[in-house]
Specification:
245 residues; alpha/beta; 10 strands
């Protein structure tokens, strides 16, 4: 549902209602490109419960305005989105951490969260468990995860973000199994809290990777079995395994 007004959304709902055999083929729902968030509410209330195989929910470049949503929107999402395991947020502005948290918790089977420039206001909440998290330019989401003590198993982010938010490694220390750090330029990397880390992937210049390797040699990552480096090589990136135990 990209750049649809409310009439177009209702027309889509009507068409789908006439061809119910199509429901089982739909795996992804995308709302985006400056579209009012109220359209997601309308779709969730009327159609989501009829989509038994939707696995991925994508919200791109839209502003979450609670007053546009029906009061029972989150209830419908909770009751009807049992198979949604992946949430992709790109440029979504949330009014508060409460709203962000309600959306995340409404997806009861959520295991993978991808955020690109997702904004909200941090606050405390109950702990959250996420299998896969890919965070880019989402400082507020880092703060939110830290504030609620989120347990992450596989984390992808930029080097500068780890430098700004080292607390996330601390709160996810016991659960973190793999870490993929992009653009490790002039960023310090303290992985000592991540004692259960098994796989580490670093992308950046050789000097920064070398410094990271020195710091790792002084650490106590006894469960680490693989380190992979990704460095610029002319016009493309060349991947090479540094350590594989």
């Amino acid at each position: 549902m990209k750049r649809m007004d409310k009439k177009q959304v209702y027309r889509l709902i009507k068409v789908l209602g006439k061809h119910t055999e199509r429901f089982r083929a739909i795996r992804t729902v995308l709302l985006g490109l400056e579209q009012p968030i109220g359209n997601f509410g309308s779709f969730a209330v009327r159609i989501v419960q009829k989509l038994p195989r939707v696995e991925l929910l994508q919200l791109w470049f839209c502003k979450w305005e609670t007053e546009q949503l029906q009061p029972d929107t989150f209830l419908h999402v909770t009751l009807t989105s049992g198979l949604v395991t992946k949430l992709d947020l790109n440029g979504v502005a949330f009014p508060s951490a409460v709203v962000f948290g309600r959306l995340v918790r409404a997806l009861a089977r959520l295991s993978s969260l991808k955020c690109w420039r997702a904004m909200r206001v941090p606050c405390s909440a109950l702990p959250l468990r996420v299998n896969v998290a890919d965070l880019s330019y989402s400082d507020d989401v880092f703060d939110f995860f830290v504030s609620i003590g989120t347990h992450i198993r596989h984390l992808t982010c930029y080097g500068r973000e780890l430098e700004k938010h080292p607390e996330l490694l601390a709160v996810s220390a016991e659960s973190l199994l793999s870490l993929d750090v992009k653009l490790l330029y002039k960023a310090s990397l303290d992985l000592s809290p991540a004692v259960n880390l098994r796989v580490l992937s670093l992308a950046g210049d050789l000097e920064s990777i070398a410094k990271a390797a020195i710091s790792l040699s002084c650490g106590s990552l006894f469960n680490l079995v693989e380190i992979t480096e990704l460095r610029p090589d002319l016009s493309f990136f060349k991947r090479a395994t540094l350590v594989s135990i």
